[in-house]
Amino acid sequence: MKIVSQLCNFFLILLLISCGSDDSPVATEDTEAPSTPLQLTASSITETSAQLSWEAATDNVGVASYQLYENGTLTETAINATSFAVTSLSEETTYNFKVTAIDAAGNESGASNTVTFSTIAAPLRFETNLSDMGIYTGTFSDLTPADGVQLYELNSTLFTDYAKKQRLVRLPNDTKLEYNNSDLLPKFPDNTLIAKTFYYYVNEGDPSQGKQIIETRVLLKIEGSWQVGNYVWNGSMTDAVYSEAGSVDPISYIDTNGETQNINYVIPSKTDCFTCHNNDENTFPIGMKLRSMNFTPSYVSQNQLDYFSGIGLLDGVNSASISILPDWTDESLDIFSRARAYIDINCAHCHQPGGPVSNFGLDFRLETPYEGTGIYANRGEIEARTQSNIPSYMMPQLGRTIVHNEAVVMLLQYLDEIEP
């Protein structure tokens, strides 16, 4: 037994010596974070999604995954690639994203660069009710533009039986009207909305008595082409309904002289709208030319083009280099400038090359030299037709039912003074 005890003690000593001389490495905790992911970019941006991509991070052990932060909030924690499709976004909304790398020990890298983008708008369409078009906010009959909808005015305006007009434009987020190398129409981005609302004051001598709102005409630029639509207001002026059919709306109002005026106001059909806005089978806006907006409007105390540039709606335009459409009502101007301005805004959309009434060889555009307009040779027709109310003979044939008396006086003076 003594020998057995001694052997046990011997092996115990050997075991202790063996354990005491164990020089195998001891595992240490991984505290080193991965490198920062670089070059985060966004592509394939749609109304509700975008594709994010970045350069891979490195780690002393290995990158386990990536995390995604949306507008500062962690939204994804187990991305196993260097790209990721973000979905369920809201259209026309600005987003900020960044990514970090995570290793197996849970160490998180620094954040990548932040990528910022805005989702695009879904293609516009004509809704059944004007209230669903996003043009107005608050009490509908107040005609208060919604956020992102901008008022604009024109220096000389189209005559429509003395109706008042409110003109509005809305551009998609992060887009601008762009200079088109002329003082005519700028370049409009897709999903531009232009609206013009026609109304009369119940009493022009006292606008506080309210309005009689009749119609809102809308132009939408959809996938490169302009589409026209019209909304007819209900009697209580709480909304307007899309309509492609023309109609007549009897209107009675008190003018600035205190006299009652009765108008059989004609609401145009969709075909009528195409007639005026068509050139060579393409549809375009008429009024929103740069030269027509190059003045100080009533709603702001600076040049309108400069104002649009300042609020980020217009790019590449120096108002000083753009011509100015004369105000035909300004009697301080010469009769020739006034008449040409009136004829341009009221007649030239039909009487020009490519226009719907181009077979008479007339070109009433302001930019056309006088000798090429045909005004002198047709001065008798212009005089007669502008004073007529015969539907098939009067000029313009669309947009009015009564004679524009003040303009006729001015035009007759002009036609009497012009020479060949």
UniProtKB/TrEMBL annotation:
Q: Which Pfam families match?
A: fn3 (PF00041)
Protein name per the record: Fibronectin type-III domain-containing protein
Q: Which InterPro entries match?
A: FN3_dom, FN3_sf, Ig-like_fold
Organism (species): Ulvibacter litoralis
Task: Please report the stretch or stretches of sequence annotated as the Fibronectin type-III domain.
Answer: 36-122
Q: Which UniProt keywords apply?
A: Signal
Chain segments annotated as transmembrane: none
Q: Which residues form the signal peptide?
A: 1-23
